Amino acid sequence: MNDDNSRDLYDRALSVMPGGVNSAVRAAIEPYPFFVQKGDGGHVIDADGNRYVDWVMGLGPLLLGHDLPEPVQAGIQQKASEGPMYGTPTEVEVDLAEFVVRHVPSVEKIRFVNSGTEATTSAVRLARGYTGRNKIVVMQGGYHGAQESTLVEGDAENPRPSSAGIPQSFAEHTLPVPFNDGEAIREVFDEHGDDIAAVLTEPILGNYGIVYPEEGYHEFLRDITEEHGSLLIFDEVITGFRVGGLGCAQSEFGVTPDLTTFGKIIGGGFSVGAVGGRAEIIEHFAPSGDVFQAGTFSGHPVTMAAGLETLQFAAENDVYDHVDGLGEQLRGGLTEILADQAPSYTVTGTASMFKVIFTRDGPGRDSLEEQCGAGCRQNPTCPRYDYCPKNAADVKNAETERWRRVFWGKMKAQNVFLSQNQFECQFVSYGHTEADVEETLEAYKQAL
Ligand SMILES: *Cc1c(COP(=O)(O)O)cnc(C)c1O
Question: Ligand 1 pocket check: which of 237, 270, 423 to mutate, most ligand atoms within 8 Å of Cβ?
Fold first, then answer.
């Protein structure tokens, strides 16, 4: 496979951009990433004309794939041609806000921003302003964007910045705990309960291999935050309008958070973020409240039109049936392939999210008949239950180097584009077909 053009572009990029990229994970591919020329349905075509089945889908935003349906394209083009933005409100912001409020159980009011990072930053500030407390509980391995309060590693006893440039005094207000560990949450509330502004979590760990919550975990988080006067914030930047359809993951799990952060799909492929929740809390944002929050590009008309038309298209067509159905086929097919070729590996994901975690240990082959059939559900009766990843440490212990250095390249050589490392999620879009699924399963068979 020729990649001369990608190599030359990367050479130019290295001279003018740090690491040759504008977002760190893109450089995880070695020796250099391929540069994309254009998309085509469920495929991308690179700068050398190679065509791949694309399961990265922009790392989450592209629910509909690369070919936007006619009404979505028309909405975007009309807003762009009328003049990109104004610094004063437009109707389409109200339309999108009304749509979200109508469909997402916990959202009574919403503030649009420009990225998932900005959404979680604003949500943390809002939680602190609303409660008058400082501390935020986060999950180890959870990702909430490139922001000071959540780029924190270690544990609740010894939190420390996970990036240079963040003062230890910031990190001290963040308490990382393992996902799916109720006891760890209970301990931080026993110790710091009066100073915990919020528990911030993805409903499903989507940036660390895909880890599904254990039965009752979110209900437990809901109860303990309520008990202590803390807020529960669901970061649905990935799961929003992907898991649980238009009701998002919170409707799937039947748990109502106080605040929800959105991004990715809600902007239909353009830069976006949002914070929604109970009106009484959201009203604390300026100008109705005293928590400052603002943005030149917030509620950008082109973005709002792309988001609104995408979600309306999903509401009126079989988008979720299609992507969830293909997701099920992929995960089911992978489960069968692994039983044969790599019985210790775990298939994860739900709805249109999927991944194979290269876990090192598993149950005996003869018990695999009874395992979760199409993605780990943390089901205690599954023979894999004692081995499947329940938190970030479990994912990290997998064969992450084999995944990145050997397996990823073998898939690329078969024209299948997977996410850049063991941790990032993979996504099915409306542009994908059964043929894409079959081709991909065949490639997994060869590469594993
Ligand atoms: C992608 C992501 C973010 C960050 O969003 P950006 O738009 O990249 O700033 C935050 N939280 C979660 C759960 C994400 O997946």
Answer: 237
